[in-house]
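ingest -> validate -> predict -> emit
validate: passed (alphabet ok, no gaps, 278 aa)
predict: started
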Amino acid sequence: MSKKIVFLGCGSMGEAILTGLLSAGTPPQSVTVTVRRAERAEELAQRHGVTALASNEESNANTEAVAGASVVILGVKPVGIAALCREIAEHLDPGAVVVSVAAAVSLEQLEGALRPGQPVVRSMPNTPLKVGRGVVALSAGTTADEHDLAAAHEIFDGSGVVLDVPEDQQDAVSAISGSGPAYAFYLVEAMAAAAQEFGLSAETSQVLARETVAGAGLMLAEPGADAEALRRGVTSPKGTTEQAIATFEKLGLPGIVSAGAKAAAARAAEITKELAAQ
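emit:
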């Protein structure tokens, strides 16, 4: 990708996306980043070779950056997205694709703060993008065509798996893949606590739980991997693992996970309404 790409805001998630983009072959000289602090701008410029501007020193950094851009990634916090869109709206090329990585900000809110007809794509990335194993769900706006969606795909292709979903499924995506890494980390915490109940040291318990879940994740990442088949492969009839799984079922673990995901999705919908009311 040789077109001009701009990141407005570049925290840890934005930098993960930037790293994947550059690793996939995008030349650093085609990328411009804006952040608030000069120290952060200098850090990004030195680490990645991109052009980095600090809005605390250059008040028009955002509007200067988007001039002539083909793709603009909005990486600020959700509460600041609408104001950022209004700030840059008149400075965007009509065909520039605006990609939001802000959770819970709807396409309607994004399009309402930009000029009519501006192509917009909403994304839901998750934190494993930082290690190149993320998953990203994209939803195209009302005027974004297949070429605009393809441009958004190129931004994330170097950081993980990219899927297209209707926007009304974004809250579900957020509940499963967006929040999902925390569920896995929570499982590790629970496994480590159980290990300590057996009398294992805290250090040994952490290693056992962490490396087991990390290793299982690598097995799931193999082509054609199926979670149920992998589970059955470990669960010998009348064996120890079968007893554990049966206990999880009896205590309602699948229902607990489902209830938690539904609560996360409901909260995402609430946040969207709160942002729209501001």
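The chain has a mean pLDDT of 96.
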